[in-house]
């Protein structure tokens, strides 16, 4: 919700989605603006995420990990 407020206050209008495959792989937040996609995965710790099959190959977009150390920069 804080990310949504940030976009609204700055008048930066984006479409927000989540992404999931039939096999269960998922991305927590996908933002689309002007045809560009940004993917975000939320983790409590600083752990690396396992490779999510299909996303990077199909959408040519990296997945950014948001955790307790970089959360304030995100919102």
Structural account:
The chain has one domain (2-74). The protein has three helices and four strands, in the order αβββαβα. The model has no long low-confidence stretch (mean pLDDT 87). It starts with a helix and ends with a helix. Strand 2 and strand 3 form a beta hairpin. The chain has a four-stranded mixed beta sheet. It has 75 residues and is α+β, with helices and mostly antiparallel strands. The chain is globular, with a radius of gyration of 13 Å. The chain has helices spanning 2-9, 55-59, 71-74, and strands spanning 15-20, 26-33, 36-42, 63-66. The chain is 23% helix and 33% strand.
Question: What is the gist of this entry?
Answer:
The protein contains 3 helices and 4 strands; from the N terminus they run H-E-E-E-H-E-H. It is α+β, with helices and mostly antiparallel strands. The protein has one domain.
Topology diagram in text:
Layout: H1 2-9, E1 15-20, E2 26-33, E3 36-42, H2 55-59, E4 63-66, H3 71-74
Parallel strand pairs: 3-4
Antiparallel strand pairs: 1-2, 2-3
Structural class: alpha+beta
In N-to-C order, the SSE pattern is HEEEHEH
Strand content: 25-35%
Largest sheet: 4 strands, mixed
**Helix tally?**
3
- Number of extended strands: 4
Identify the notable features of this structure and list them briefly.
alpha+beta; 75 residues; 3 helices
